[in-house]
Write a structure and sequence with these properties.
The complex is a heterodimer of chains A (934) and B (259).
Chain A lengths: L11 H27 L2 H27 L2 H20 L1 H44 L5 H65 L4 H6 L16 E10 L2 E7 L29 E2 L5 E2 H4 L2 H4 L18 H11 L21 H5 L9 H12 L2 H4 L24 H9 L1 H4 L19 H18 L16 H11 L30 H9 L1 H4 L12 H12 L4 H5 L7 H27 L2 H16 L42 H10 L25 H12 L18 H13 L7 E2 L2 E2 L3 H6 L14 H4 L2 H9 L19 H14 L16 H13 L26 H4 L2 H9 L1 H4 L24 H12 L9
Parallel strand pairs in A: 3-4
Antiparallel strand pairs in A: 1-2, 5-6
Helix pairs in contact in A: 2-5, 3-5, 4-5, 11-24, 13-15, 15-21, 15-22, 16-19, 17-19, 21-22, 23-24, 25-29, 28-29, 30-34, 32-34
Chain B lengths: L1 H20 L24 E10 L14 H5 L22 E6 L12 E6 L2 E3 L2 E5 L4 E5 L5 E5 L7 E5 L5 E4 L5 E7 L7 E7 L4 E3 L5 E7 L2 E9 L3 E9 L4 E9 L6
Parallel strand pairs in B: 1-16, 3-6, 5-11
Antiparallel strand pairs in B: 1-13, 2-12, 2-14, 3-4, 6-9, 7-8, 7-10, 10-11, 14-15
The chains are: A mainly alpha (934), B mainly beta (259).
Chain lengths: 934, 259
Amino acid sequence: MADFKEPRAYNSKTLAKVFLIASFALLVAIVTMILHDYFKPWKQYQREFMTLERKMDRVKFQEAMSKINVQKYNQLKSSLAAAKASIRSERSQIHQDQNMIAKYQAKIYVVHQDYQFKKIEINALKWRYEQYLIKHEANPTLEKQLNNLIAVDKKLGNRVTVLKLKRNGYGQALTQIYAQKTKDQSTLTAMLRQVNQIKHQYAKMGFTPFFAFRNAPIVNFLSPTIKIHQILLKNLPVDLYFAHTMRVDRCITCHLAIDTPGFENAPEPFTTHPDLKLFLSSNSPHPMNKFGCTVCHGGVGPAVGFISAGHVPNSKAEAIRWKKEYGWHYPVNATSHMLPLKYAEASCEECHGVQQHIDFAPKLDLGRRLLVVRGCIGCHKIKQLENLPKAGPPLIRVKGKLTRAFVTKWIWNPRSFDIYARMPSFFNQSNNSGPKSLPKTKAELVSIVYYLFHNSKNYAPPQKYPGYGNIAKGKKLFHTIGCLACHGIADAMPYHPEFAPDLSDEGSKVTASWIYSWIRDPQNYDPTTRMPNMRLSKRQAANITAYLMSLKNPAFEKEAVPKASTAVRNQMIIHILAKNAGWTGAKQELAKMNSGQRWEFLGKHSIQKYGCFGCHEINGFENAQGIGTDLTTWGSKQLEQLDFGLVKIPHTRVAFLKAKLENPRVFDYGRVASFNNRLKMPNFYLSKRDRQAIMTAVLGLTGNYIPQSMQAGLTGNGPLIEAGDRVICKFNCRACHIIHDQGGRILQYYKQIGLDPSMGPPNLADEGAKVQVKWMYNFFRHVYPIRPWLKIRMPSFPWTDKEIDAVITYFNLRDHQEFPFMKISVPKLTFTEMIQAKKLFNQLECLHCHIVGNHMPKDMAAAAPNLSQVRYRLKPAWILKWLKNPNAIMPGTRMPDFWPNNASPAPNILNGNSKKQREILRDYLYTLGSTSAN
Amino acid sequence: MTGKKIYFLTLSLVVMAIVGCGGSSNQGLSGSIGQTAKPTGKLGTAIIQGIVMLKGKPPVEPIIHMGADPICVAAHSKPVHAQTVVVGKNGGLANVFVYVSKGITGTYASPSTPVTLLQKGCMYIPHVLGMMVNQPLDIINEDATLHNVHAMPKINAPFNVAQPTQGMSTTETFSKPEIMIPIKCDVHSWMRGYIGVVSNPFYGVSNSMGHFKITQLPAGTYTLTAWQEAYGTQSQSITITSGQTQGVTFTFNSSSSKK
């Protein structure tokens, strides 16, 4: 370079260096960018997946190949070769045939043309002739001409047909020569179909030069095969800071085989979804293109990075593994976090929250049941779970049921009486068992009991226990009649239902007369109770009473009743009153009260403080509101709104909930708070299973916006079905009955003691299609034994007409009956049909098991329902279905298949026509028991 | 300078294209027809001749009360005992299903000759039955009363067929091996039978003296398993050479009831 010496403000040599360095840096930056883009993790996953898919295809190909029958394949090959050879040998014949066909084709063409032309001539002549006819003139020449032409045309037509037949003859000969080859070829194609499909698919993908070009850096903006895959969900919007925007899920960019069966054992992220029947596949109720991923799993749909998508591990071990493998850390910046898999069912609540019973999400279903049964909703409002019965018994007449000593000891420590106590512990907790707090809690305890008994209405059991109860008989009856559907008891363990209180120590709790009166007529003590009437005779009730009274808890009975100090009580009252009246005013007010008033004052205050009325009806608290936080949208509560206190746990909703449920007072740890300002939630001592279930249910309460059209139970018959299911859940019908594949929990006990499940409560499969509406109504009103041989008994429920109506509607709609569910028409049998039906009825030995009227079967162990009920109990269409295949309606039923594979067991009747036989048998059943028959 | 830049870019492009394609070579599909199909199983000349014994005092089997169905009563001149544990005079245990549970290679064609399960005198004859998969099972009602044959398998498809008339016959098959399938009659609650379904012809049921025989076994080492309704299963290993007749003894203990 020439050395110019010009007056410049810069040195061009230095500048050139600067440019050189800068451009080099730019180059490096560009290359780095391109490389960074090219090696993005999701792109790497897609490349990896291609290799995996090809590997799978190779395995599939091998499998498909190996399935082909060698012998058949070889036979086919040689047969095909032979066919080809024979075709070759007959080449001259084929040639000849082909020639003949061509020849005839030509002839047909010519004759056919003539034939068509003649038709035109006929038409022209016809018109001319018709002109004469209109004028009523005769023209015999024209008429003759016309007739001649028609005759000629007909001849030509015949000739065409003849020629065509001849041509077809040669055609058939040709087809015959080729027949074997065509047949073999199509069989071969069918045999190799799967193999060829895989081959075709395999050829389409692969790391070809074209593939490399399409996905090469820089060019790959044109039409890459490695690209982001996404699902757009207009119907499930995302709540993004005050606005609803379309949901975009890009999870399938990496989870490439999530909806493809066959990748169950592939490494993550290529694993197939574990439940394709329920999710993702196009014929499942939740197809992928309609529901996407994040509506269930949570997380950030549009993100394609492992951390930015909001992945959250399921366990500590998984967190450690993720840290090591993916450099994972808690996705603090993600707008939404995925639910750890063990709580994934929580999301089902978003769309299914309206439903009473979520069959496919057992954990969530249990959690929701526990929220009700354990009384969570007594204090915490949850909009989806409103207007449900209180979890605890009413205390309006507590004086007539329990003693003060029992109630005091019970509230003080419910678990010392019964480890299955559903009543939680308010006292002896981590934040109120210190030496300063203990006397105060005792004062609260004693005052609460004083209030309850002081305000209790009088009650005396109306029926006195007659005293002749037999413990052993009572035990047997208790275990067989159906008490175990709802109540747990120690001597039926490990089977232990939790719907109603555990009765293992009942003898230390109530009096014999109280139990006796209660089981004879539960609504007498508590008009609102769901406890049904078991229609026990006096003796049966006495036996059960004797049994329950024999179950004592001596350790609890020996326990001392906690005592309170009046000085502490007074101090506490002053503290409370001082808030409004000041210290001197408070002391003056206290002085005005006598001892009873003081206990009552503190009792009322304590009941208000702990919210006892959330679960119990208490006189004086009829309109009190639950004292807990509203949980309706807790699942989307901002973390800043949760008080983690000084407890060192990760600041996540899951961790908070877990700590809170493990010890509800935990967040008071290390904190300075006055006695009345400490956390009050009682300890439920939840098992791990129950805690996780409740967590699942609470985490699902997000309040996220879901359009009505996407919510279950809101469209069509949904609300009617849910209304019925609400009654079914409220009265625990599924404890005994299997209703649409769910329930029958008592059968676990049958299994435990080795009892035949067919001796259990009937399966209510297809019940709506089975029984008549009128019968169902009457049955609920006046229950009678349909299967007298069963030990377990259908109770009489205290249902209103509205509740019965809801249940009837539920069954009929679930089983696709048309409103108003009343269509019943049975054809009348003719005289001869009647004779044949009777013959069939006898020949099939229906009476061997079925009761008819007063006629009992030979062996009551094999008894089946009374057929004279058919007339007013069953629907005719159902009977045909039942007779055809009982096992399809009720798996495991004792009713055998009389027409297996539609073959008749009585070929002598109606020519063995199975369908007709079932029909006349059905019609005959409707005549049984009526006055008109016989 | 610019020329060099393009040169660099092209170079990196080529490098990346190679990286993109490298690693996984374009392997073709391979596999030959019928390659991995299991070979047809062979028959041999070895014989297992065994006995099943019961140690200890056999339990007293209760008498079955058939009074509920007069036709059942009429079929027997002597009282009938339950058949849960049937012991011969020599202490041999009857109705034990013995089969080769491990060591068989290859597949065996199912015979088309049916096995028969009789309902006679309101009892199942035989009480324990062995058969091969897809082998026809003829179930015949020899009584002039209603029976239903209610099979309660866990793996195979269940069936429950009524046979209201004497001489009625039904043919069923089981498509998968299953040890054991209980059979009951819901009409006569005492009627119980068991069917063992296996995929080879090497099985036997002990007779009233506890004897059983498995023939045509190829030489090899096998696991032999015996199943008894009340006492569960027992297994033992056995090695056998061609043409040999090997004795085997299974001993169940009467105090080891499985329930």
